[in-house]
Design brief:
Blueprint (H helix, E strand, L loop, with lengths): L6 H9 L20 E6 L7 E6 L6 E6 L6 E6 L4 E6 L9 E4 L4 E6 L10 E7 L13 E6 L7 E6 L6 E5 L6 E4 L9 E3 L1 E5 L5 E6 L5 E6 L2 E6 L5 E7 L5 E6 L5 E6 L4 E7 L10
Parallel strand pairs: 9-13
Antiparallel strand pairs: 1-21, 2-3, 3-4, 4-5, 6-7, 7-8, 8-9, 10-11, 11-12, 12-14, 15-16, 16-17, 17-18, 19-20, 20-21
Keywords: Signal
């Protein structure tokens, strides 16, 4: 399985021009549509949903993972909150915090949590979306090791750019969070060095997703969602409230210009939220 296409090298080369300056704050639209509760994840096996990613192969299906202290597995949950498949792979994971899916249907499981900031490397695992929705044991996987250029960081956010499949990690810190990219063609042998691209907007980020246009990303904090215009210099567009106080996950919604947000804990609710947008200027 290919991890990234050659085009990603061009994407990464473009991204390294990003400045490491803090992004300016922008006010959110004061009257966004009200969040809409879509479903509840009430399966007893999912106690700490920490990441959400829309399937590329199956309609109305999302992949999620448990936070730390779980085995290497991914759950496929439909929009009724029912688990349709559990994919298990025999990896020794430490602190899985995020999940993402690229346009070819490769699932990325991000073992990037590091509360004590003591890990020498972090890992990303890849498995394919299954040909049928059923439980699977011993799923074939690939492992990629990564190292930050400036010491250990805690992180819970993995982004996959939908046009190029380039991967980005946003670190988790109340001060000094940053955006990093993987190499264009990571190796499964040895350790891959991450590149620091830019400072992240203010906030303690717990998940993120690109929107389908590939030009915007939406990041999740415990209490709000943040839209970022993704270009040569990422620009904060707007912030908007979210209905959950322990927000841990975000994914592209089923409705245009929406995202789904979820939280940790048993019987966790998932809401549909409008993507925050800068309020249009009044017509003279």
């Amino acid at each position: 399985m290919k991890f990234l296409r050659p085009a990603f090298a061009l994407a990464a080369a473009t991204c390294v021009t990003l400045a490491a300056a803090a992004l300016p704050a922008v006010a959110a639209d004061p009257k966004p549509p009200a969040p809409k509760k879509l479903f509840t994840i009430d399966d007893s096996r999912i106690k700490e949903s920490s990441g959400l990613a829309k399937s590329q192969k199956y309609e109305d299906l999302y992949w999620t993972v448990n936070d730390s202290n779980d085995t290497a597995r991914v759950f496929g949950v439909d929009t009724d909150g029912d688990v349709k498949a559990v994919l298990k792979f025999n990896a020794d994971v430490r602190d899985v915090e995020a999940v993402a899916v690229d346009r070819e249907g490769t699932i990325y499981i991000a073992d990037i949590g590091d509360n004590t900031k003591s890990r020498d490397t972090i890992e990303i695992y890849t498995i394919p979306e299954p040909s049928s929705l059923e439980n699977a044991e011993n799923v074939k996987y690939h492992r990629y090791d990564f190292k930050y250029p400036d010491g250990a960081h805690d992180a819970e956010t993995l982004l996959v750019q939908p046009e190029t499949n380039q991967l980005f990690i946003v670190t988790k810190s109340s001060k000094g969070a940053a955006i990093y990219s993987t190499p264009g063609t990571p190796s499964r042998e040895g350790t891959n060095r991450l590149t620091k691209l830019a400072a992240a907007p203010a906030g303690t980020f717990t998940d993120g997703t690109f929107l389908p246009d590939g030009q915007r990303a939406v990041l999740r904090t415990y209490v709000d969602v943040v839209t970022v215009a993704w270009g040569e210099k990422p620009t904060l567009v707007a912030r908007g409230p979210a209905p959950l106080t322990q927000g841990e996950s975000i994914a592209v919604g089923e409705v245009d210009n929406t995202v789904l947000v979820g939280s940790e804990g048993s019987n966790s609710a998932v809401y549909q939220v409008q993507v925050p947008a800068k309020k249009a200027a009044a017509t003279p």
